[in-house]
Design brief:
mainly alpha, 10 helices
Length: 258
């Protein structure tokens, strides 16, 4: 799934765990603590590894230019992260939400993801106000990965809530949800199927989406606490939009059938 020369690193494992924990956390203080812990660990690991920081720096530049090799590194991390995300199936969701309807469960999933995204942007912005500034490029990459993880988890669980999971084993389903995230459509409406190889239309679209997401993450790193507010607002708005787009397609399938 990853492009040649962009082997996934430990950050994809950390991002997958953080995205699931942050999304499912009930208290705001728990979400903030989890985001801060992930951001600190990811940026520290990137500085030690060297390559992660250099790739993240290229990603930040790519976000500003709209293209660049740094997005290949981000795409590799996302495709490595997806199969490691913790996704609740339909039975688990119904048990957790007390047998509520698919629409009620979907409402709760979207709101949970929106709160998680807002927390991610807010914490990164607060970091930028500290006297000793973290490495901004690594921060951008870390925030982007955890945000995308939150949203891919949302996409997967919305499909489960509506009883329309992707086909195949877990890894194959998660690849389909990465594609759905990139296309902002339900799995069954993805044009051209799931072909995540270098140079494919889907791979190019994924990199463009990630460049745009990294660009929005950069707003979180504005001076003082303005970055926290901007990051929280932009992240939550984008996550809500994504959830609405996916739900629209899934509702259409409920009404029209396969």
């Amino acid at each position: 799934m990853a492009e040649p020369g962009t082997e996934p690193s430990e950050i994809s494992l950390r991002a997958a765990e953080a995205a699931a924990d942050i999304t499912e956390a009930e208290r705001p203080q728990d979400r903030r603590r989890l985001v801060a812990a992930f951001t600190k660990a990811a940026s520290s690991g990137a500085r030690v590894a060297g390559r992660g920081t250099r790739a993240a720096r290229r990603s930040a530049g790519a976000a500003r230019r709209g293209a660049g090799s740094g997005t290949a590194w981000l795409a590799a991390q996302v495709t490595a992260m997806a199969p490691r995300l913790r996704v609740r199936d339909q039975a688990a969701l119904r048990a957790q939400f007390g047998g509520q309807s698919a629409e009620d469960i979907a409402d709760a999933l979207v709101e949970g993801a929106v709160r998680a995204s807002a927390a991610a942007g807010g914490v990164a912005g607060v970091w930028a106000a500290l006297p000793v500034l973290p490495a901004f490029p690594a921060e951008i990459a870390a925030e982007t990965l955890v945000l995308v993880g939150i949203e891919i988890k949302l996409v997967a669980e919305l499909h489960e809530a509506y009883g329309m999971p992707a086909e195949g084993n877990f890894a194959e389903r998660m690849s389909a949800y990465v594609a759905a995230w990139a296309h902002r459509r339900g799995v069954y409406m993805i044009p051209g199927g799931v072909v995540l190889v270098a140079g494919s239309p889907l791979a190019r679209l994924l990199r463009r989406r990630l460049a745009a997401r990294a660009g929005r993450s950069a707003f979180s790193l504005a001076p003082l606490l303005t970055g926290a507010a901007a990051g929280a607002f932009l992240n939550s708005r984008e996550t809500r939009r994504l959830g609405q787009d996916i739900r629209r397609d899934l509702r259409r399938r409920v009404l029209t059938g396969p």
